[in-house]
Amino acid sequence: MKIGITCYPTYGGSGVVATELGLELAERGHEIHFISYAQPIRLIGTHPSIHYHEVEVSRYPLFDYPPYDLALATRMAEVAELYELDLLHVHYAIPHSVSAMLARQMLAAGPRRQKLPFVTTLHGTDITLVGQDRSYLPITRYSIEQSDGVTAISEYLRERTVREFEIKNPVQVIYNFVNCDLYVRNEEARKRRIEYAPNGERILVHLSNFRPVKRLTDTVEIFDRVRKKVPSKLLLIGDGPDRSLAERLAMKKGIHKDVLFLGKQDQVYEKLPVADVMLLPSELESFGLAALEGMACEVVPVATRVGGIPEVIDHGKSGFLAEVGDVATMARYAIELLTDDNRLQEMGKACRDAARSRFCASKIIPQYEEFYRRVMERSS
Ligand code: GMT
Fold first, then answer.
1. Is this prediction's pTM over 0.90?
2. 105: containing domain
3. Burial bucket for residue 123 (CB in 10 Å: 0-12, 13-18, 19+)
4. What is the pLDDT of residues 30-46, one digit of tens each?
5. Pocket probe mutation, ligand 1, options 7, 14, 283, max atoms within 8 Å of Cβ
6. 182, part of any domain
7. Which of 140, 154, 157, 286 maximizes ligand 1 atoms within 8 Å of its Cβ, making it the mutation to test the pocket?
8. What is the atom index within ligand 1 of the atom nearest the CA of 289?
9. 332 lines ligand 1 (CB under 6 A)
10. Same domain, 331 and 233
């Protein structure tokens, strides 16, 4: 198949999923065309079947708000025509599904009457936050309904979309995935622990885009409690608006030397496996891709019981769950784990098993392929 993929290329779960999906599909023989305003962060290296098409947005003086959605629709239609795409797959409804809808209409009305069905994958805040804004809700609902196929990355998100948006067309759950060969704890990762924990300290990790929804300061609060009982280091991977809040808090608590800000990383599979425990105290997560990536590397997650997280983490088996803001309980879980080698190892293995048996790319990618086939059949 020839598939166009559009996503937010910046740091964020939906862009990561879209990029990894494109890479996996290319490995399976499909031709992939990324269409976006910048090269997706995890799209590194070259693959003969992967192409990237940048969307240029002209900054005409009249445009206080340059119309990216229109430039994107135009580029989608151009690429689809030139490369004879079979299908577009857009990640994050706003504004990508609206642009895809326009591109489909343009091509259908063009001289070749080209068909360009599009699939929309809902990821989270496109439904739970942004889509609830009155200025976006009606058009988001409309473009979801107009999609030729809709998927959601968890049962929680599917249910919420159907209930709150009153969507009539079916929404299929296709869970997020991880490449289990790449995300793995190997001997090299064990050796690299010394770079971060030279005195054999325990290592905790947090990976996100540091937006308020991630409650980064709770991560620092939890770590502060853990560090009082267990010599440890905290690796913070990512960057974003709450970084300076977290830096100040770590400084105020006098733990800043043990809180290591690693910045944005495009090869997180090299960093994650050095850690023992992942902290994910988010206000809301429709899935929690970071937890899954950690689990594949035997890093045990301590997270909040919100959104789709309980679909990924089995409390007490493949991680621990607590209520939002309950930093004391999350710290207690982390301390229990970090002071009991056997338990830590046992749960690390259970995490890896859960990731492999339910969320491996080899299990999930065929579900997308099958979904595409059905969408194409219906629209032919
Ligand atoms: O909502 C966001 O934080 C943005 C979004 C993204 O594009 O990064 O994240 C969502 O999609 C991820 C990938 O599917 C999920 O793992 C995250 O749980 C989800 N975030 C939220 O629901 C807050």
1. yes
2. 2-177+361-379
3. buried
4. 999 999 999 987 787 77
5. 14
6. no
7. 286
8. 16
9. no
10. yes
